[in-house]
Amino acid sequence: MSTPQPKTPSPIRYVVLGLLILTAGIVITAAAIYYGPRAFSAHEKASQKQTVTKSRLAVELAEDIPHTLIVPERVRDTLGIKASVVAERPKQNRPLVMPGSTALDPARVARVRTRFNAEVAQITKVVDGERRTVSGETIFRQLRPGDRIKKGDVLAVVWSTDVGGRKSDLVDALVQLRLDEERLKAREALFAKGGLPEDTLNQTRHDVVSDRNAKERAERTLRTWNIPEREIQAVYDEAELVSARQGKRDKDKERLWARSELTAPRDGTIVECNVTPGEYVADNTVNLFTIADVDSLLVIANPPEDQLPAILSISPEQRRWSLQLVGSPAIEGPIEEVGYILDANQHTAVIKGYIDNPDAKLRAGQFVSATVNLPPPPDVVEVPLTALAEDGKQSFVFVQADPDKPRYTMRRVKVTHRFESTAFVSSRLTPAEQKLTPQEIAQGFQPLEPLKPSERVIDSGVLELRAALEDKESKVGNTR
């Protein structure tokens, strides 16, 4: 039996193995070229960050002044702390921005109502300037909000049995008065000749007075119901004709006594129309039409209650504001009225003014942002917002007592107003404000201190310094 010979390795295997090794080398080299600088840059940034962190912590507590840090130059450079800022009295007025809205001026609004039960027969029609028929003919439509009208224009025609009855009563009173006046004149002549007893003459005089009272009563009712003057005059004219016809009535005309017209009491624009033909109106408090002068709108704004004394401190001739509406440029104008009644729930006051609206582009109810420039309050100084380190209810600044020494004392202050880039800080505090409450003592609060004019504060790095100060003070407290 012959011994088997070992197999010779194939040359292809060595070729494939060589190609794999070459490919791996290329991939490793490319990765080193691509990621090497980035890895070094990340390492460098981490090293720099660690250096900055160590620099920020490289501060010391001043032993002679509480809550004071001694900050080396390299830390100041890292935090961007340069020359300190002087706290000064505010030089400019402070803007007070108030929410508000536009409204119709109540003094320029008229509400048209029926003062009697009535059925609406028709609404006045006007030419529709926006539409025409296919053949080009004019189209008429009913009055609607936005239509301008003049005083005395007919808005609607109504029918009322009450009005018809009062007009009939007025005709009867006028006819009877004419008859009794002629009778009185004749009886006075007879009495003068001795042909009539005085008692009969007095009774006739009494009848005339009663007729006049009935006439006045019927006419007064019609005028109280705001019946147009031409309708009342038509009743007088008909009474003359009835007297001339010896008391004969015109039945066709009397059927129209129940017809009456609702007219516009003033010039203006219809802003509400709450009625349609065929509707029966039994509620005399319903506004059928509301007419307003929209060429000028009322503006109502609501300042906070605590800002009211500052607004009242401005002289009436200098009370002006800037009004900003959506989609419109700012409008300057005077403040016409400061209300006497405050909202007990919102604790806001009411101030009013007016804006012109000649093109009727503005509407009642639009949001308005009203800005009033108020004089700065007393006993405050102005500092940059970046000088404040705030934590919930607490606000801190770092005061540099000596501009030549890098010592910064953290002081808890009272911020009264905040603006876009600056804030007002109290420069005078009452003893009650400086006294800590038991809850504040338990939470470790610092007492409030005033920031007086000419004191210097830093406007950068305040958050980092506060964190470093609290860290240092906590370590000192733990070792004691």
Count of spatially separate domains: 4
**Main β-sheet, spatial strand arrangement:** 4-15-18-17-16-19
CATH second-level architecture of the largest domain: Beta Barrel
CATH class of the largest domain: Mainly Beta
Structural class: alpha+beta
- Shape descriptor: elongated
| Largest sheet descriptor | 6 strands, antiparallel, barrel
Tell me the number of strands. Answer: 26
**How many H/I helices?**
10
Looking at CATH, which topology of the largest domain would you report?
Answer: conserved putative lor/sdh protein from methanococcus maripaludis s2 fold
Please give a structural write-up.
The protein is α+β, with helices and mostly antiparallel strands. The chain has four domains: 60-91 and 378-479, conserved putative lor/sdh protein from methanococcus maripaludis s2 fold, CATH 2.40.420.20; 95-106 and 294-374, Elongation Factor Tu (Ef-tu), domain 3, CATH 2.40.30; 122-158 and 265-292, no CATH class; 161-261. It has ten helices and 26 strands. It has helices at 11-57, 73-79, 161-193, 198-224, 229-244, 251-255, 308-312, 431-434, 438-442, 462-479; strands at 60-61, 68-70, 85-86, 94-103, 109-112, 118-123, 125-132, 138-142, 148-149, 154-159, 259-263, 268-273, 280-281, 289-292, 296-301, 320-325, 331-338, 351-356, 367-374, 380-384, 389-391, 394-399, 407-413, 415-418, 422-426, 456-457. It has a six-stranded antiparallel barrel with strand order 4-15-18-17-16-19. A hairpin with a 2-residue loop joins strand 21 (389-391) and strand 22 (394-399). The chain is elongated and about 145 Å long. The N and C termini lie far apart (98 Å). Mean pLDDT is 86; it is low at 1-7 and 39-57.
